[in-house]
Amino acid sequence: QDGAHKHTYQSDVARLRKIVINSLYSHRDVFLRELISNANDAIEKLRLTSLTEPMVLSGAESMNITLRAFKEEDGTTKLVVRDTGIGMTPDELRANLGTLAKSGTSEFLARAEKTDTTGTGNLIGAFGLGFYSSFLVADKVYVASIAAKTPANPEPVQYVFASSADDSTFEVYPDPRGNTLGRGTEITMVLKEDALEYTDTVKVTELVNKHSSFATQFPIYLFTERTEEVPIEEETPAEKPVKESDEEAEDEAVVEDVTDEVEEKPKQTQTVTVEEWVHLNSQPPIWMRDPKTVTDEEYELFYQSTFKDYEKPLGWAHFSGDSGSGTAFKAILYIPSKLDDSFWQSQQTAADIRLMVKRVFITSDLGEDALPKWASWVKVVVDAEDLPLNVSRELLQNTRFLRQLKSIIVKRLIQTLTKMAERAAQKDDEEDELAWWRVSQVFNNALKLGAVEDGKNKEKIAPLVRLPTNQRKDTSLDEYVENRKKGQKQIFYLADMGKSPEVLAKSVFVEKLNARGYEVLLLGQPLDEIFVQNLRIWKKLPFQDVAKSGLKFGDEDQDPEDEKEQQQELAETYKPLLDWFKKETQGAVRNVVISNRLVTSPCAIVADTYGYTANMEKMLNAQNQGSDAKTVMHDYAKKMKVLEINPRSPLIEGLLKRVAQLPAEDEERDIEAEDELREVTSVLIDGALVRSGFEVPDSSEFFARMDRILRRSLGVSETAPTDDTVRPAPPVDPSPPADDEFAFDDTHLPLDPELLGLKVGEPVLETQEAPQVLFEVEEVEDVVAAAEESVPEVEEVVVEEPVPEVEEVTFEEEEAEEKHAHDEL
Ligand SMILES: Nc1ncnc2c1ncn2[C@@H]1O[C@H](COP(=O)(O)OP(=O)(O)OP(=O)(O)O)[C@@H](O)[C@H]1O
Prior knowledge:
GO molecular function: ATP binding; ATP hydrolysis activity; ATP-dependent protein folding chaperone; unfolded protein binding
Organism: Phlebiopsis gigantea (strain 11061_1 CR5-6)
Keywords: ATP-binding, Chaperone, Nucleotide-binding, Signal
Protein name: Histidine kinase/HSP90-like ATPase domain-containing protein
Shape: elongated
Region (Disordered): 231-270, 715-740, 789-825
Bound molecules: adenosine-5'-triphosphate
Strand order of the largest sheet: 1-6-5-4-7-3-2-8-9
């Protein structure tokens, strides 16, 4: 072409085109969806720009998308997708279609290249394949485009971008046809021999209905041709004489009718081709329709095309309302099927809310804090009746309706999740159960975050959280309370971050509860302990850490008299051992007591009410950057431990005997026997620490002790030295490293991190869901602010009882409170 410039695709584009063409052959229908989606974006961009720059509208009257297929005289078949959107300048054609500007594209490509074709589902969903998918069906693609008129570009010129499927280059040149578009973009695909089905209007209609009926609010027209038999118009016969009277006319008419039928000659017809633009998406937008008339499939398709998600949503709510400020709105809220990996990696996530005003898309950028972090994954389409159309984001944020929108959405989201949970709990529909199970799998941790960060709603969010126990895979707090034993006045839990429920269930702290049939929440997820500590009480029952002192089964007062006597006897019998332990553990624990929680283990270390459990110690060590005052507090809290011994353990019984055998102080002491006992005691205490999840303070000491005990049991001399002579390293080598000496052996390469689903270059989190927000337990101020405003009334809203305000105490406050309590003591 005249004035054509040849360009080479940026290498990433070439790679993407290759992946698309090679791996998506069996999914090639997607090309139409992608082009319609681009056309919609271009018209939306035009409409938004026109609010501040009306000049861009010149060039074409309407805003629409047209599809047309035709056969050229040379036999080639073409499909043309055209829009009256914002268009592109020649520079934009080069930049937009010749390069990939998206961040993370290279990584995506590397992964996609490794994926076989079975992974194409993910491929389609993971990335807007966009314009390049046109090469799935076309050997050659021409994009003619003319940029919208602006003061800076008052005389735009129509240009063409042309490329073949197997070319690594493309051309951009002025359109030899001149300005044929008026405004917008026209994509002409020269269809491949095996893609001629896309000229079939039935097929195209089907595709649009299936994938794109909700992709745009602008009309999509399809050019159709059909043949029709039409009568050939005969010359109008001469007029009959007008009858004199009505009566006569009636009589005449009857006769004439009959005569006409008899006399009628077969009409002459001819075949004509009727050309017509058929409106394919003529239904009103889904959110404007009566929910009763919308099918589940329509809701799902609408979600998939609006939010570009290949997966179906897990649930939705379609609702309308009238905000207190007088703004009527209609909205659909969707629960997606996954949580983006980025959710736990950032403090705040932008919400996905598509705001419309009177059916017209305004923005999906309502700012980072449009929703509280915990709920930022919800997808919403909201159409307000009377908001100004041409407002900036700042102005939008200042409108009362949008400030209320946050609490409207959060409230409705909680309601939707609650309904899903309730339906699943009825256990009469497997689909309901599966849907809730999936929601819980994906969002359980986000809900815990919600119960912690959203002080206003925590009483409603907490029942949605599911936690594993020693008796079932998971339970809600309400189910736990229902399952409590007679007299039980505490909700038992054991927390140890990073441990599985199976491992936790075997903990010494759960031994007795398990044996007696009490249910214990097993908390191994990072947010678990913060979640329960923040709630403090559920349905009047306080949470009781079973690794702490203060554990009460609730039926102690029913202990038979003889059992109490037995306890007293035990205390007396074991006094020498308790005293011995107290002497031996000086400084390490606050007290030594006879345990009522151990069944088989000989002993355990339990945190005092004001002390730290092993889990808290671990978390605080990880976080510890505190002031000196804090460190003093930590040291103090760390020491608040109690050693519990199990009188029924043969080991403890044996130890008691040995201690009792020691000569009394005024007799001659048996130093050797004392030392041996001392060693056994310290191994027991170390064992108790480990068994209880704490760290042994000095592990080399611990192993030295183990060593001595092992030697003793094997009859090896305890003092015999180990031969520790080693060969020293050769002298320093001054020559530079030779190549062959350091040949790279790639058979020992570590595992490819990408194969493990890890992103290279980013910090690797210990557990996939380890949040960065562990201790940021604070109220979301905006939610509080929104609460101060009158919350708009939403239709179908169940009127809930006002939830009593629960005192919010953050971790630090709690610490201070504990210190205070202790000082008073
Ligand atoms: N019909 C069109 N009108 C105007 N610009 C277009 C049109 N089609 C594509 N473009 C421009 O080309 C760019 C690249 O399009 P492409 O379809 O490859 O990716 P995308 O649309 O940005 O991403 P995605 O498909 O993931 O949404 C678009 O961002 C847009 O700027």
